[in-house]
Amino acid sequence: MPKVLEPGVLYVSEKYSTAAHLCACGCGEKIRTPLGPTEWSVRDGSRGPSLWPSVGSWQRPCRSHYIIDNGDVHWSTQWSDAEVQAGRASEQARREAYFESCRPHFSFWRWLRNLFR
Asked: For the chain, what is the total number of helices (H) and then of strands (E)?
C-alpha cells in the first residue's frame, strides 16, 4: 500500500489480503478492510470495483457508512452504538461458525484414545 492514498481509489493487496481507501465522505481518514472468507471481498467489475459488505467507519469521527458497488459509493444509514455492537457480535458469530465448519470432524487423537478404552 502506498503511504499516501489518493481519493476515489480502492487499493488492493492480494499478498497481504487487504484493501485500503480514503473514507468516501472526504474526511481524509484511511480505511483498511481485511479480505477473506469471513471479512470483506473485492470484485472488479466492468464499471469499477465493489467492496462487500458495507464499510462502517464507527471508530472515526465521521462515522460514515457506505457500500462501494461497481465504482460507485452508495450511502447507508447511520448506526447507533447498540447497532454497531450487535453488528460486531454478528460478525464474530459468523467467523466462529465458518472456522468451525472448516475444522476436520475426525480427530486422530480422539480416535486413538477411544481405541484403548
From this structure: 2, 7
